[in-house]
Amino acid sequence: MMLELRNICKTYLQGRMEVPVLKDISLSVEEGEYLAIMGPSGSGKTTLMNIIGCLDAPTSGAYLLEGEDIAGLGDSKMSDVRLHSIGFVFQSFYLLSRQSAQDNVALPLLYAGVRRRERQEMARQALERVGLGDRTGFKPTQLSGGQCQRVAIARAIVNSPKILLADEPTGALDTKSGEQIMEIFQRLNEEGVTIVMITHEPEIAAHAKRTLHIRDGRLVDAQGKPLTDSPPEGDVSEGSFGSPIPTEVTTPVPLPGQDTAL
Ligand code: ADP
Ligand code: MG
After folding, report:
1. Which residue is closest in CA terms to ligand 1's atom 5?
2. Where in the sequence is the domain holding 104, given as residue range(s)?
């Protein structure tokens, strides 16, 4: 098993109010999988990705990455895991605008202590893998959005991570550039990279081999029914008397003008 989340909960403290954002998430991803996680804005997708990517710790629950309990690791071990096991792709690229494509891609190698000559060679090869072998000296301002995202993918894979995590990787791109990104993901997956991709676009999710849905911090099936390991307790249909989910006093009340987008 590549990674396993067991009963993960994440609660943010906003003032004195506890805001539950992830509620009892359990999921397993096997080596070589290509998983899409879909859900509307505000449903907890980025929070979930940050936990899978060891950028944030859950409030409760267990996270096993290649069998190792991540919760037990200290900060420096966590950043080691991020550096060597996980590649990140974000909606907004996060490239350094004054650096060339090649230097952007080489950056994780610098942190990993790879020597300069080797860094440059590995970065060039990674750019070739995303079809940008002829753009190594270009800066982000001299590249299109789709090309910038390909640079970001090259940076994500330059360390040969086991897992590629992508949060809305095509969210800022036109359809054609988005399709090119999906072709690259397809190829990387065929080469053995495990991919977990977050998106709210069905056409993008359709490229994955498996799709999970998240609603209001819970994993649900395509019809919106909660996915649980245990059999449902009684009738959970809307308005039911015996609903196992109590009305929580901690449920946040949206303030006027707040972007809830639920
Ligand atoms: P998505 O990526 O699906 O749009 P997020 O995971 O970004 O959703 O956010 C889910 C919910 O958690 C939102 O209601 C958001 O306001 C809340 N949230 C996210 N990060 C924080 C934080 N650092 N502090 C408090 N609330 C947060
Ligand atoms: Mg998000």
Report:
1. 44
2. 3-220
- Give the number of whichever ligand sits closest to the CA of residue 20: 1
**Number of domains within the chain:** 1
- The answer for residues whose C-beta is within 8 angstroms of residue 170's C-beta and 6 or more apart is 149, 177, 178, 181, 182, 199, 201, 204
The per-residue pLDDT for range 145-175, each reduced to its tens digit, is: 999 999 999 999 999 999 999 999 999 999 9
User: How far is ligand 2, taken at its centre, from the CA of residue 214, in Å?
Assistant: 12
The two structure tokens encoding residue 160: 């040969």
CATH number at residue 114: 3.40.50.300
| DSSP element (H, E) containing 35 | strand 34-38
Distance between Cα 40 and ligand 1 center (Å): 12
Strand ranges across the sheet with 163-167? 86-90, 163-167, 194-199, 34-38, 210-215, 218-220
Q: In the numeric block, which tokens belong to residue 226?
A: 């909660």
Residue 255 inside a domain? The answer is: no
Q: With beta carbons less than 8 A apart as the criterion, state whether 143 and 151 touch.
A: yes
Of residues 60, 172, 158, the one with CA closest to residue 118: 158
